[in-house]
Amino acid sequence: MSKTPEQIAREASAWWTTEIVDIQPGRIGIRGYPIEQLIGRLRFPEMIWLMLRGETPQREQADLLEAALVAAVDHGPHAPSIAISRMAVTCGLPINGAMASAINALDDIHGGAGEQCMELMQQVAAAVEGREPTLELVERVLDEYTAAHGKIVPGFGHRWHGTDPRAVRLLQLVRDAQARGVVDGRFATIGTLVEEALGRRKGTRIPMNIDGATAVIYLELGFPAGLGRGLFILSRSVGILAHAWEQKQQGGRIKGPMPPSVPYTYTGPQARDLR
């Protein structure tokens, strides 16, 4: 039996459903709030929170989220995503193409450590089951984690920084927020215990890095691990945009990862003839 036009219209209208935005002619509602009430009153971190969580945060919660977003915006043109954005511009891509190319590189290895660290910390929290976390329990979870994912523990250690200055500052802000009752400090404690456990295993301190510190903040604020990479991408997109724009002003044409004067290493067969 064929459908009536009314049935088709209802089916089409029900195809997508959303609790996020309600748009009608002359009206835009975000989570129920008229957009004109949000403009000029909500800061960008508060808008991110509203979009993802459905409600506006307390000011101190938004401050902590903002600190994490600010901390991770850039780490120089040696970071693959930043380098990609600059190379893409020299290949003729517009800003949006350069940004898209760079963001596509932010996957499990480059860009995924924060989300992975959140998963590890949540695994510890689940094992604790409401009790205070202990070093012994953390070591047991680390054994399970490394058995499943390999020896690299995301969120700790850094190839450039012996001590990551961003992590130091962010953890200080978390402890300050804990003292004011904004967060409970559970994941900050878990992160510190993971750092201690890794130090025991390696025989030297393996400090928390930016990915670990932002993982602590996002979990303290109640964000699920599945949003960790997206939040990092929101932050790093600022650096990607800035570098793409700077490269556009500098010019340059088809710049690869190394200048032509720096050769790569060829490891194939010696020159030979096809006979």
Automatic annotation (TrEMBL):
Pfam families the UniProt entry points to: Citrate_synt
Any GO molecular function: citrate synthase activity
Keyword rRNA-binding: no
Cellular component aspect of the GO annotation: cytosol
Enzyme Commission no: 2.3.3.16
Coiled-coil ranges (or none): none
Pathway given in the UniProt record: Carbohydrate metabolism; tricarboxylic acid cycle; isocitrate from oxaloacetate: step 1/2
Family matches, as Gene3D superfamilies: Citrate Synthase, domain 1, Cytochrome P450-Terp, domain 2
UniProt enzyme class: transferase
One of the protein's GO biological processes: tricarboxylic acid cycle
InterPro entries: Citrate_synth-like_lrg_a-sub (IPR016142), Citrate_synth-like_sm_a-sub (IPR016143), Citrate_synthase (IPR002020), Citrate_synthase_sf (IPR036969)
Keywords linked to the UniProt accession: Lyase, Transferase
Region (Disordered): 251-275
Family statement drawn from the similarity comment of this UniProt entry: Belongs to the citrate synthase family.
Family annotation (NCBIfam families): PRK06224.1-1
Protein name: citrate synthase (unknown stereospecificity)
